[in-house]
Write a structure and sequence with these properties.
Chain A: One of its GO terms (molecular function) is phospholipid transporter activity. Chain A: Keywords: Membrane, Transmembrane, Transmembrane helix. The structure holds 2 protein chains of 2 kinds. Chain A is mainly alpha-helical. In chain A, about 85% of the residues lie in helices and about 0% in strands. The termini of chain A are far apart. Helix content of chain B is about 35%, strand content about 25%. Chain B has a single domain, classed as Rossmann fold (3-Layer(aba) Sandwich), CATH 3.40.50.300. Chain B has helices at about 55-65, 85-95, 110-120, 130-140, 160-170, 190-205, 215-220, 240-245, 250-259, and strands spanning about 15-30, 30-40, 45-50, 70-75, 80, 95-100, 175-180, 210, 225-230, 235-240. Classes of the chains: A mainly alpha, B alpha/beta. The interface of A and B includes residues 119, 126, 128, 134 and 138 of A. The complex binds adenosine-5'-triphosphate (ATP) and magnesium ion.
Chain lengths: ~260, ~260
């Protein structure tokens, strides 16, 4: 029993060390050598294309549901007119970024994990390395930067679509013009709502790309390890998203929300 | 057939050894794969390695390019110890050594053309598109796959993939070629063509080759020297005909077994 704990602990430490090495290799390759622009653009397109629909639908529903759920409570307080404001703050600060990131973890981290995992298993990564090309530069740097770039964009899109969903739900019961609704939403927001949330999504994107690449790149040889890599990429990336979120909220409340 | 026993003994004095493996051992956990492997390969020599499946032939050549590191012993390529090379040196070495994977290892998100262009643009950093096209065409012609140039690897047969892998390795014209079963899974006619291509590479570009194979025809065509591997060690060495006519039971069994 004690032995198991010790070996488990050792493995965990080893894993962290390996991730550290992987991170250094990533950083070293970002600032060194030729950047693979075309692969980067291709990845950005893939990521956007793969997730936009899902992010859009989820955000739309989230906006609607939030309005429907918040309405009775605010009605009770007689603060019905606060609905757009409440929605936009919760959506922009928290729900938009986190929902988008979780969806991207499921969609993108898993597919990166599976893709690199299968490249590892079928010796494509070895082949690239042996040919003298740089697989980290071609495969890893492009993917991590692409997720770090695209997840924030997707989150912004999600925010906007969520607000639309909220408007639709509001029109079920209230008669409010779109421009008034939108004005109320925007007026409620401050840079201190917007900027920290945006920065947070960059980290979410980084975590998704990094975890996906790490899990795929370090998967064992054997077909079942591809599935394993994809699976643990999703789980780990999701976990990271919540950890980053918890840290981010501490920092922003220290700095801004006094 | 005597022609295959060429430049073995006579050039030995002014040795120009490009790969020198001495006493390497390699184990994966409890599985001792390589027990004591030593071999020297001279410039523009074709060495064929024969051996039963799972004997560690692939592991040996992976040690030469630094994909695996032996537990003990030394691997020197062009006179330099592989395990002590810096990243830059290793990269430089790898541009001079071609490696054909047993599986072909084609990049499956790229077309055949992109697969072949990859080492040209990423490793040799050739910018001239005309030069690239010329080389792609030349090398694809060599393996007889000109019309597959825009296909994706998933649309190719196993044998075709193997040949594209071969083309991708040959396109950079490496000084040393490591072939892991270049003809396995090919029909006899294509096999023979591939074997002749290997021979042609040696004659034309003075390429040094290590060829792992189970295909006796290929061994016969390409080999200057044959090594037989068994149980993590080399048990015999000589020209193809010498070994074939050997009286040693182990060697005989091997030839009867595989032909
Ligand atoms: N990366 C690895 N990790 C663990 N074990 C390995 C690894 N590579 C090879 N082995 C083991 O080493 C042994 C030799 O493998 P190798 O691929 O070198 O055989 P081989 O002689 O090339 O056989 P074949 O003719 O079938 O290709 C096998 O038992 C294999 O399980
Ligand atoms: Mg093998």
């Amino acid at each position: 029993m004690a032995e198991q704990i010790v070996t488990g602990y050792k493995k965990w430490l080893e894993n962290i060390g390996e991730q550290g090495v992987f991170f250094t290799r990533f950083v070293g390759n970002v600032f060194n050598g030729s950047f693979e622009w075309s692969e980067f653009v291709r990845q950005c397109y893939e990521i956007g294309y793969r997730s936009l629909m899902l992010v859009g639908i989820t955000a739309f529903i989230m906006g609607m549901v939030l309005i429907l759920q918040l309405r009775p409570s605010l009605l009770e307080l007689g603060a019905e007119s606060m609905l757009p404001r409440t929605l936009s703050i919760s959506l922009i600060r928290e729900i938009g970024p986190v929902i988008t990131a979780i969806i991207c973890a499921g969609k993108i981290a898993s597919s990166i994990g599976a893709e690199l995992g299968s490249m590892k298993v079928t010796e494509q990564i070895d082949a690239m390395e042996v040919s003298g090309a740089n697989p980290i530069q071609y495969l890893v740097v492009t993917r991590i930067l692409a997720t770090s770039f695209m997840v924030p964009l997707l989150a912004l899109t999600g925010d906007a679509i969520g607000l639309l969903g909220g408007y639709l739900a509001l029109t079920f019961t209230d008669s409010i013009s779109f421009s008034l609704y939108f004005h109320k939403c925007i007026a409620a927001l401050d840079f201190t709502d917007f900027i920290p949330a945006f920065i947070k999504t960059i980290f979410f994107g980084f975590a998704i790309g990094f975890v996906g690449c790490y899990k795929g790149y370090h998967s064992d040889k054997g077909t079942e390890s591809v599935g394993l890599a994809a699976n643990s990429a999703v789980v780990t990336a999701s976990l990271w998203i919540f950890v980053i979120d918890a840290i981010a909220v501490q920092i922003t409340s220290l700095l801004f929300y006094r | 057939m005597e022609t295959f026993i060429n430049n073995n003994g006579e050039n030995g004095a002014m040795e120009d050894i490009v790969v020198e493996i001495s006493h390497i051992k390699k184990a994966f956990g409890v599985n001792e794969v390589l027990k004591d492997i030593s071999v020297c390969v001279k410039r523009s020599e074709n060495v064929v390695v024969l051996g039963k499946s799972g004997q560690g032939k692939s592991v040996t050549i992976q040690c030469i390019v630094g994909l695996l590191t032996p537990d003990e012993g030394s691997v020197k390529v062009f006179g330099k110890e592989v395990s002590e090379m810096s990243d830059a040196e290793l990269k430089d070495l790898r541009t001079k050594v071609g490696f054909l994977f047993q599986s072909g290892a084609l990049y499956d998100s790229m077309t055949v053309r992109e697969n072949l262009e990859f080492p040209l643009t990423r490793v040799l950093k050739i910018k001239d598109q005309k030069e690239i096209d010329k080389r792609v065409e030349e090398v694809l012609d060599g393996v007889g796959l000109l019309d597959a140039v825009d296909k994706l690897p998933c649309d190719l047969s196993g044998g075709m993939r193997k040949r594209v892998g071969l083309a991708r390795t040959m396109i950079v014209k490496p000084e040393i070629m490591l072939y892991d079963e270049p003809t396995t899974g090919l029909d006899p006619i294509t096999s023979r063509e591939i074997s002749e291509l290997i021979l042609h590479m040696q004659k034309r570009y003075k390429t040094t080759s290590i060829i792992i194979t189970h295909d006796m025809e290929c061994a016969k065509i390409t080999a200057d020297r044959v090594l037989i591997m068994n149980d993590g060690m080399y048990i015999a060495e000589g020209s193809f005909d010498e070994l074939k006519n050997s009286e040693d039971i182990k060697i005989k069994a091997f030839f009867n077994e595989t032909t």
